[in-house]
Please model this.
Amino acid sequence: MDARAIIAAVRRKQTPSKEELAWFAQGLASGAVSDAQAGAFAMAVVLNGMTDEGRIALTQGMRDSGDVMQWDLPGPVLDKHSTGGIGDCVSLILAPVLAACGAYVPMVSGRGLGHTGGTLDKLEAIPGLNINVTEKQLRLITREVGCAIVSATNQIAPADRRLYAIRDVTATVESVDLITASILSKKLAAGLDGLVLDVKCGSGAFMKTHDEARVLARALVDAANGAGCKTSALITDMNEPLAPALGNGLEVAVCMEILAGNTAEAPRLYDLTIALCTQVLTMQGEDPTDAADRVAVAISSGAAMERFAKMITVMGGPPDMADDWHTHLPKAPVVGEVTAPASGRITAIDGEALGLAVVGLGGGRRVETDRVDPAVGFAEMVGLGDQVSRGDPLCVLHAADEDAAVEAAMAVQRAITIGEDVTPGPLILERIN
Model:
């Protein structure tokens, strides 16, 4: 086969065969396809798109470019993927909840991207935790605990790693076809029986409108099902932070509160976690009401906390995380309130601006080599529709120094609009099956 012929076919709006796209993916992984050819392929896809068949074939080819795990476990192997948002720490709760419900969750996660935080960065706020494990260790942890949240090995979808780096420097990131293959190739390499997708839209999401989110959700669901994994998606609102905390350690603290049964601390986060867990269990044949009840009991009984704490210990973290997590999470040296400059209701929240403010505090990366400060961020954040008086706290700011705190406080005040009235929309906008 010839990379030039495959590129030319996409340029002519033709769909290469499944075998050709599998060969191209293997060439990305091995180096047989050059950087120039990879960039030309990506640009042709961006300009002309792919058919459903082509998108599925590319996803499968990139999945099969590395190791694809197979499991022999006494329960379903399930996972979830989010397209990224502000205060989105669902994974830290969802994985142990599903484990407590009898599923197995080998969750291969990522780091922060742009204004959104990464699951691995959040976990690394816990001292001693090692998210870099071998495939053998991932199998052992998943079997013993029921869940493992880890970094991808170099053997997982290497074609995607190569193509993603090239897309980043050739202005070809924003393609539904390439985004779909990138997300799913890594997830499906985990050998899943079921996958639920959380596709976000709004001010704090990459997809700003419901229509954009629907296009991506439909592409992801169809490609994953076409590749043999039972998959559905929820399109969810991200016009305000999902949790009332932004920043790695602060978001872990909110998750610990929910796992401890204090679900009123973050009702939107709790409700979405219940919904996503219920959705993926229902795909395995469970009755939706029974599944929702089992998920709620997994949290209220402490079973999910037990799983999470065991996972943390097995991965090198503190052995008493369930009982003494306040002591172990990092604390910022500068803590203070950001106050409302006027009275009224919170009518709009610029989630992207808040996320970038966390990055400015040191809680995210401007470049890949930046070190992340796990202690900084915002806690006790107001939500849409909340009533405030002038001087009331909009949030509690955690910073490394006074200068950073002053700058971040101004960013928060600019990101939050205070007006007369607003009716917050629903959390779950649509289900895509």
